[in-house]
Amino acid sequence: MTNMAESLSFDILLSKSQLYISQKECTERGLLQTSKWLAEMIIALDDVLLSSESETCQLVDPLFASELELYLLAKSYFDLREYDRAAYFTPSAKSDKLFFLHIYSKFMAGEKKKNDDRVDTHNSSLAPDTENQYLRELRAELEKKHADASLDGYSLYLYGVILQKLDLTSEAVDVLCQTLHVVPMHWGAWLELSMLVTDKDLLARLSLPDHWMKKFFLAHTCLELQLNEESLKLYTELQLQGFGKSSYIKAQIAICLQNLQEVDQAVEAFMQLQKTDPYQLDNMDTYSNLLYVKDMRVELSHLAHRACNIDKYRVETCCVIGNYYSLRSQHEKAVLWFQRALKLNPNYLSAWTLIGHEYMEMKNTQAAIQAYRHAIEVNRRDYRAWYGLGQTYEILKMPFYCLYYYREAQKLRYAASIDDVHTCDFSSNSRISAFWA
User: Fold this and answer.
1) Long-range CB pairs of 405-411, under 8 A, 24+ apart, other chains included
2) Using CB atoms within 10 A of its CB, is residue 146 exposed (0-12), middle (13-18) or buried (19+)?
3) Threshold 0.85, pTM exceeds
4) For 152-171, what is each residue's pLDDT tens digit?
5) pLDDT class for 125, splitting at 50, 70, 90?
C-alpha cells in the first residue's frame, strides 16, 4: 500500500484549489458530510494562499442556468428534508446537477421512510432491517443511463451506493471506481468504496485514479483493515505534506494508536484534539471507549456532560453516556442509551458491538449473540464483534462455534494468536477482554 501512495504527485496549492471547487459542488448537491469533510481540509490549509479567485471559479453550465429557479425550489425542499416534494417537482431534469438532486431526493425519501418504520416497530433496535422502497426503481433508471454513458460523476456515485444497498458488491466496486476517475475529489465515494474492501488483495487490485486523494483513501482503508502501522505512516506523511492542522488526521492517528494498544498516547491525542476543537463530537465515542478501558471515571463523566450539552441527539453522545453508565455497572441504563443511538442510526457499528458487551455483563447471551451478529452485518471487518461471539459461545460451552468465531477474529486482528485469546479471563469485563484481543 505504501508503494501505491509513494507514486502520487502532491501540489498543495492545486490541492486547495480542488478542495474549494469540490466543496462547492457537494454543497450544491446536498452531500453534506462530504462537504463538511472538504471544508475541514480547506481550513487545515489556511496558511496556503491561492494566487487569485480564478483558481476556485468554474464555468456555469447553460443547461443548469436554464433550470436554476427549479433547482432553488427543489434544493429548499431537500434542505428541509421534504424529499418527496423535491423529487416530485424535478421529474424532467435535464442538467446533471438537477437530475442528481432528483434521484438523490427519491433515494433519501426511501431512506427516511425505512428509518421511520424502524422507529415505529416495537423494540426497533433489534428489528430486522427493511429495504428502501425506491432502490430497485432507481437502479433501473440509473442502469439505463449508465449503459448510455450519460451519468456524470455524482450520479455514478449514487448508482454505486444503490448497488451496494442491493448487495451487488462487485458491480458497486466497479461503478465506484469509475466514479473516482470522474470526480476524484468526492470523499464520500472513496468512503463507500472503502467499506467494500474486505482484504489487502482486493485493495491492491482496485483501478484507482492517480490522484492525491488516493493517499487519504489508502490510509483510511488500511486503518479499517487493521493495517495500523501502514495507516499511521500514511497519515504522518500527509501531515508533513501540508495537512498538519487537520483535525480529521489527528483523530485518525489517535485511532491508529488505540488499535496498536498505545492507549496512553491515544488518550493524549484525543485530549489535544478536544482543546483545538472543543465542540467536535466526531470520534468521541472512540475516545469514551479509551476512557472506559483506562477506568478514567472523572474524565468520562466530564465527556458525557460536555457531549450532552453540545448535542444530546447525536449517536456519539448516546454512546458516550452509555459507556459512562456501563463503567458505573448500571448496565440496564447503558443498554437504553445504546438502543437510543440505534434508533438514531440503525447502522451505527459501535452501538451494536457495545450493546452486545452489555448483554454479556447481564448474562443475556441470546441477546448478546443477536447484537454481535447485527454488528457483523453492518461491518464484517469488526473483529470485536467476532471476538464477542467467540466469548459468548465459550460461555455456552459450544467449543466448535467458539473456535470458528475466534479464528475469524484472529484473521482480522492478525497480531492476536489463538493461544492469547484462550487465556482471557471470561469472568472479567467482556469489553476489556475484547479491547485487548
Assistant:
1) 408/383, 409/383, 409/384, 409/437
2) middle
3) yes
4) 999 999 999 999 999 999 99
5) very low
Which region holds residue 81: left if phi is over 0, alpha if psi is between -120 and 50, else beta? Answer: left
Distance in angstroms (rounded) separating the CA atoms of residues 100 and 156: 9
pLDDT in tens, 300-359: 999 999 999 999 999 999 999 999 999 999 999 999 999 999 999 988 999 999 999 999
Cell representation of residue 339: 438502543
Cell triple for 69: 429557479
Averaged pLDDT of the chain: 88
Kindly report the length of the chain: 437
Give the tens place of pLDDT for each residue, 44-72.
998 888 765 445 555 567 888 888 899 99
Half-sphere exposure of 388 (CA within 13 A, CB side): 33
